[in-house]
Design a protein that fits this description.
- The complex is a heterodimer.
- Chain A folds into 2 domains: about 190 residues, no CATH class; about 210 residues, no CATH class.
- The longest helix of chain A has about 35 residues.
- Chain A has 17 helices and 2 strands.
- By secondary structure, chain A is an all-alpha fold.
- In chain A, strand 1 and strand 2 form a beta hairpin.
- Helices cover about 75% and strands about 0% of the residues of chain A.
- The mean pLDDT of chain A is about 90.
- Chain B has 22 helices and 4 strands.
- The N and C termini of chain B lie far apart (about 85 Å).
- Chain B is mainly alpha-helical.
- In chain B, the strands form 2 sheets. In chain B, strands 1-2 form a two-stranded antiparallel sheet. A two-stranded antiparallel ribbon of chain B has the order 3-4.
- The model of chain B has no long low-confidence stretch (mean pLDDT about 90).
- The longest helix of chain B is centred in the C-terminal third of the chain and has 45 residues.
- Classes of the chains: A mainly alpha, B mainly alpha.
- The interface between A and B is large, with 49 and 45 residues.
């Protein structure tokens, strides 16, 4: 059903449910962690705006609305990053704001050109794609959805943002550009094939480079940031590969990544809270502190890596099939990126939860992990598992079968 | 059809119930494994020379289907037999040990996954079960000593990476051929680079699972720290069955490698290198489990070599060797585990003289050791013999056959040498005083090795009548397999028994039973019995010091041949490049861009000085600018 630029098809419903759920989980986690840290009202407002922008983008086909939600998201993310008002956070916030603001400006010019050429802002009615408009909009999408070379703002953003809203940033805000790409370009006959090839290369190289960076870094938040950029690149690869496997794989991957990355964010946030440390070299043996968190994080990393029976397995498989069908080189790069994901997940998981000196007496804890923190990670893990086992139903729901 | 689902669900389901209801853990485990064995037997009997295919789901042209033929049915049967034996053994050995509560769950998960792999008639469905086994492997390896996490981590990485490579191979096959079902009709030919690449990618998955070089290094690492039952079940048995099963499937049911000599040469080279290098490493080991683990790797070489020849007899030999290896290698691991269980150590230097204390274990070990060394009439001899003959047949195609033959035979000789050392180390020679109280293991622990040792004999003496005629030859229906030369296992057995009888008579009536005992002197000093004891590792200690080998061994022990180190090094290098060079470059560009904006900000800030004349000046300049624009 399309009405005044809003669409309520299966995919928009699927994305809406995903974003609402991730927002709800963020809210739950915030109840336990954000209490003592002040500015609570602002926090919940920003969380609401991020969810609103995600849901809004998911259900609209009007470029103006997309732009409005886009800007709301930029504002909310910027405020979330500077939430603690520390100098380094303000500096990170500046990076976020400048990058996204400049990109939004270019996007707006691109939208304007499309409007002039097509006399409409509804994506389904846009048939003439001026090359300048396509380039400007693509730059905007790359900046919003952290694709090479405009991904660098996410690393300081992740380092500063409260864990509670970090999950929403990974699971909602960064998908806005991808959704726009899907709505505007995928399956649109006006777009030349070469465009998708070029975007595909950007996506896969972005995924590869940040996957490698994640493997090297020692900071927990940096790992999450690089990993997010890498996985978002994977999703964009799916969309640019197109076809049944690429497109539906990428949509399923949005869900898989949102669940896994939110869970990992909350898990890492919990570890940071209880140890007061942010560097992997200073943390080990978390297995002794929380066996439940150990198992949950193992499963979430498995989903990110793409091991059966987690949902990430099928989503990754579909994206790789789509990629190979498009271009065999995409497939090789995608697999290399997947191997990086395996390596950094393996490294971080084992160094965090096992490590060399596994003596409980040596672990200095600032506090014990709370029930809500563990519970939130548990919910996301179980859901990743259940949705993995019932992936056929997901595919049926989003209209893939 | 229900049997198939039950075979997939029962082992893991019962394992899960056993995990949740601790009091019924053993009962649930046995129930699941026995019922699975029953269904495997049913399928084995019903589907003789029949095929069965059933589609579960179809997504965009991918037909997720179950498929069973002669090859499936016998591997299914052995999967469940071996799992049952391991369960029986581990119930005693794992009691009150670390990870006891989850052990059977992982055993069940492994059996379910293994059955799933074998029952899949589509590469994608197989990949799902294959991937499930990564979980099972990682989990079961964690059940061991504290250090087992390192072995589990290594296994996860190596097997995980190979699974991704396998995934790519499957997708390429599907994309090019339009189907991922097997058997492929017609078989895919290796006539272009893409198809050869696809085959090679699938091959990586197969050899990583089977544990061939260079993807074997997690196996010796795990051997030090995980229970014997785990080693006996996973790397020695199930992984070999699945890896080699898959190799046969891709080589003869999906592709036709007989048409491509270079591909076969690659396979044979992997096989030959694996045989020689792994057995050379085994020769110098001082720890029983680690020594056996290198043999577990070495034996894969024979299978890959045999299957890689493309000669029907050797392919059948390779497949036969897969079953034989699972039988004797499990037996060896379980026997060594029994010794470790009683003696509390598996260091060969600290063991010896246990033959009189553990006679049944020694008997089983002896039979299995002869079998793996290729001594007739045991099963290992027969399959190796078939592979040798196949390699000789290869002379029609390449002159390199002699190299492969020498490698295979040399490996066999070193295997025998290595097991003589181990036999001496465990059961013969002087017994250390602290082992005086050692006694034979309990019934539940000796039954599995006895059954396996019995199978070593039966599959050797009646090789043609039972395993080859009923299991192996029907699994390769496209080959006309004819034995070359003459071999009568029955006659050989009779002659060998006669030889042993004569030896026994000489032993009993000779001087062997009346040894002269004397003290050991060195430089006029009487040596302590313990000090004078010659342990097994001394047998070949000089090998380690041979000029050419010394450095190779040292490099090997330091991890120079470890794929895992290279993987981490290469990807770590790329990671450093990406983060420290490319990433920093973009940050620099951003900073330059940001600095320009900030500088512009300063300029504009300076321009807005708050004084009226300044603003009037700007208005005047602006008016001139507009005027020029209009004039142009």
């Amino acid at each position: 059903m399309t009405n005044a630029g809003f669409v309520f098809d299966r995919i928009s419903i699927f994305l809406t449910i995903t974003f609402l759920f991730i927002g709800f989980i963020s809210f739950l986690y915030a109840l336990a962690t954000i209490r003592q840290k002040g500015h609570r009202l602002e926090y919940y407002l920003m969380l609401f705006l991020i969810v609103l922008s995600g849901v809004g983008t998911a259900i609209t086909t009007n470029l103006l609305w997309i732009f409005i939600f886009w800007e709301i998201s930029t504002f909310a993310v910027w405020r979330a990053v500077v939430y603690y008002r520390q100098p380094e956070q303000i500096s990170s916030g500046n990076v976020v704001f400048i990058t996204n603001f400049v990109a939004a400006g270019l996007l707006l010019v691109g939208i304007g050109i499309l409007y002039l050429d097509n006399n409409s802002l509804i994506v389904t009615e846009i048939k003439n794609f001026n090359i300048s408009a396509v380039i400007l909009i693509t730059i905007g999408i790359f900046a919003k959805s952290v694709i090479l070379p405009l991904y660098f703002w996410l690393v300081p953003a992740y380092a500063s943002i409260p864990s509670a809203i970090g999950g929403s940033l990974a699971g909602i805000a960064e998908n806005i550009g991808l959704i726009m790409f899907y709505r505007l370009f995928v399956n649109n006959p006006g777009i030349p094939e070469n465009y998708f090839l070029i975007v595909g290369y950007f996506a896969v190289v972005s995924s590869l480079i940040t996957g490698g960076s994640a493997y090297i870094t020692n900071r927990l938040r940096y790992l999450l940031a690089y990993s997010t950029i890498s996985q978002i690149g994977f999703i964009l690869l799916g969309f640019s590969a197109g076809g049944f496997f690429g497109t539906y794989g990428a949509i399923a991957y949005i869900l898989a990544h949102a669940l896994a990355k939110s869970g990992l964010f909350y898990g890492v946030g919990t570890i940071e809270d209880i140890t007061g440390e942010a560097n992997i070299k200073n943390i080990s043996c978390m297995l002794k502190v929380s066996p439940v968190l150990t198992v949950m994080m193992a499963l979430l990393f498995s989903s990110l890596v793409g091991f059966f029976p987690m949902i990430g397995f099928f989503a990754k498989l579909m994206v790789v099939i789509g990629s190979v069908q498009k271009n065999i080189l995409f497939g090789f790069f995608a697999i290399a990126s997947a191997i990086f994901t395996l390596l950094y997940s393996d490294r971080f998981y084992h160094e965090l939860f096992y490590g060399e000196k596994c003596d409980i007496r040596e672990i200095k804890l600032e506090k014990k992990p709370g029930l809500i923190e563990i519970g939130v990670v548990f919910i996301l893990t179980v859901l990743s598992l259940i949705l993995g086992v019932s992936f056929y139903e997901i595919l049926t729901f989003i209209g893939g079968i | 059809m229900n049997e198939v689902y039950l075979m997939l669900l029962l082992p893991v389901g019962c394992g899960l119930l056993g995990f949740l209801i601790k009091r019924l853990r053993n009962e649930m485990g046995f129930l699941g494994f026995i019922v699975t064995f029953y269904f495997a037997l049913r399928i084995f009997l019903i589907f003789h020379n029949k095929t069965f295919a059933y589609s579960i789901a179809s997504i965009a042209g991918i037909d997720f289907r179950i498929y069973a033929d002669n090859l499936t049915r016998f591997i299914l049967l052995f999967n469940s037999v071996f799992a049952l034996l391991i369960l029986l053994y581990s119930i005693i050995t794992m009691r009150k040990s670390r990870g006891e509560d989850v052990y059977q769950l992982y055993l069940g998960l492994t059996l379910s996954g293994a059955n799933g792999v074998v029952l899949s008639g589509n590469l994608f469905l197989m990949l799902i079960f294959w991937n499930m086994l990564v979980f099972a492997l990682y989990g079961i390896l964690l059940v061991g000593k504290k250090e087992s996490v390192n072995a589990a981590r290594k296994a996860l990485t190596i097997v995980g990476v190979s699974d991704f490579i396998l995934m790519l191979g499957i997708i390429i096959v599907y994309t090019i051929a339009g189907s991922a079902n097997f058997p492929a009709e017609p078989l895919l030919s290796l006539n272009n680079g893409v198809m050869i690449s696809a085959y090679m990618l699938l091959l990586v998955g197969a050899i990583a699972k089977a544990g061939a070089m260079p993807l074997h290094t997690w196996i010796p690492e795990a051997a030090r720290v995980v229970p014997a039952s785990t080693m006996a079940f996973i790397p020695a048995c199930i992984d070999k069955l699945l890896g080699i099963y898959f190799l046969v499937r891709i080589s003869y049911y999906l592709f036709d490698i007989t048409q491509s000599l270079p591909v076969r040469m690659t396979l044979m080279s992997i096989g030959a290198i694996t045989i020689v290098f792994a057995v050379m490493m085994a020769l110098i080991q001082k720890e029983a489990m680690r020594l056996l683990s290198f043999h577990a790797v070495s034996q894969v070489g024979y299978m890959v070599l045999g299957i890689g020849t493309g000669i029907p007899l050797a392919v059948a030999g390779g497949l036969f060797h897969m079953i034989n290896n699972a039988i004797y290698k499990m037996c060896l691991f379980l026997c060594a585990g029994s010794v470790e269980y009683r003696a509390r150590t598996s260091e060969l230097d600290h063991l010896g003289g246990l033959g009189t204390k553990m006679p049944l274990t020694m008997l089983c070990f002896l039979i299995a050791a002869f079998a793996i060394s290729g001594v007739p009439p045991f099963n290992g001899f027969y399959s190796k013999w078939m592979i040798y003959q196949g390699i000789i047949e290869l002379y029609k195609e390449t002159n390199l056959w002699i190299i492969f033959l020498v490698a295979a035979m040399f490996g066999s000789v070193l295997t025998l040498a290595s097991f003589l050392k181990m036999l001496h180390s465990l059961f013969l020679g002087e017994r250390p005083k602290e082992l005086d109280k050692v006694r034979e293991v309990r019934f539940g622990m000796i039954v599995p090795p006895l059954i396996l040792a019995f199978l070593c004999i039966i599959f050797g003496i009646f090789a043609e009548q039972i395993p080859l005629a009923r299991l192996i030859y029907p699994s390769l229906p496209f080959f006309k397999i004819e034995p070359i030369g003459f071999w009568s296992a029955g006659l050989t057995t009779v002659l060998m028994l006669l030889g042993i009888l004569i030896g026994l008579i000489i032993f009993i009536f000779g001087t062997a039973l009346k040894p002269r005992k004397s003290k050991v002197f060195v430089g006029g000093e009487v040596l302590d019995t313990e000090e004078a004891r010659i342990t097994g590792p001394n047998f070949y200690s000089s090998v380690h010091n041979i000029d050419m080998l010394e450095k190779t061994y040292r490099f090997g022990e330091e991890g120079a041949f470890d794929f895992y180190n290279y993987l981490q090094g290469i990807f770590g290098g790329f990671g450093t490049l990406f983060r420290e060079v490319i990433n920093k470059f973009f940050v620099l560009v951003y900073n330059a861009f940001a600095n320009i904006i900030i500088s512009l900000g300063y300029v504009f800030s300076a321009v807005h000085n708050g004084e009226l004349p300044g603003y009037l000046g700007w208005i005047f300049l602006g008016a001139i600018f507009i005027f020029i624009l209009l004039a142009l």
